[in-house]
Design goal:
The complex is a heterodimer. Chain A is mainly β. Chain A is built from no helices and eleven strands. In chain A, strand 4 and strand 5 form a beta hairpin. Classes of the chains: A mainly beta, B mainly beta.
């Protein structure tokens, strides 16, 4: 059974940093692209960032480019999101999501077949 | 960037109704479109991919159609468990854009 478990959310001041983690199990982690998708309170879904199975290719939404860094440790089956220079508009539930395939196979990497339960990040003074 | 627009934003319906939600892309995305269902406080769930392929375990009352820029999600006979918010998503590029969502509520 595929399981994705996010952690690391919390309250942080504007300009601060936070690192999210997503522990994966139930599939061959290194064979699949992974993404972070966020949802601001009462709002819709916004794709944030993606990483290939090997970790060699990364992709970012314009809204977070230069501030967030996605990475993965395939030996630990864990996905990360380092968030720096946080803003109030980054307040959201952050979900990790498994890609349908790896980025090498094309766009199916950005189709999400499993999601974690989410972790709340609140940016406020 | 590809923009996705769903209509309506809210839909009131009764159990047993046939429900249709529309999603339009700002440029052609071929059939690279997915539909997700989200219930309050829960993660989204994949229902349909490649515009019309039903994800394993999803009831057959859900169906999808379309290609290019116009897509629809149809629920043939609305069930109590189907009251939720539905999102379309394009994956025709190295990022994934979601529609703004359609909330299906009880009439």
């Amino acid at each position: 059974e595929v399981q994705l478990l996010e952690s690391g959310g919390g309250l942080v001041q504007p300009g601060g940093s936070l690192r999210l983690s997503c522990a994966a199990s139930g599939f061959t982690f290194s064979s699949y692209a992974m993404s972070w998708v966020r949802q601001a309170p009462g709002k819709g879904l916004e794709w944030v960032s993606a990483i290939s199975g090997s970790g060699g290719s990364t992709y970012y939404a314009d809204s977070v480019k230069g501030r967030f860094t996605i990475s993965r440790d395939n030996s630990k089956n864990t996905l990360y999101l380092q968030m720096n220079s946080l803003r109030a508009e980054d307040t959201a539930v952050y979900y990790c999501a498994k890609g349908f395939a790896d980025i090498l196979t094309g766009y199916y990497a950005f189709l999400f077949d499993y999601w974690g339960q989410g972790t709340l990040v609140t940016v406020s003074s | 960037d590809i923009q996705m627009t769903q209509s309506p934003s809210t839909l009131s319906a009764s159990v047993g109704d046939r429900v249709t939600i529309t999603c339009r892309a700002s440029q052609s995305i071929s059939s690279w479109l997915a539909w997700y269902q989200q219930k309050p406080g829960k993660a989204p769930k994949l229902l349909i991919y490649k515009a019309s392929s039903l994800e394993s375990g999803v009831p057959s009352r859900f169906s999808g159609s379309g290609s290019g820029t116009e897509f629809t999600l149809t629920i043939s006979s609305l069930q109590p468990d189907d009251f939720a918010t539905y999102y379309c998503q394009q994956y025709n590029s190295y990022y994934g854009t979601f529609g703004q969502g359609t909330k299906v509520e009880i009439k």
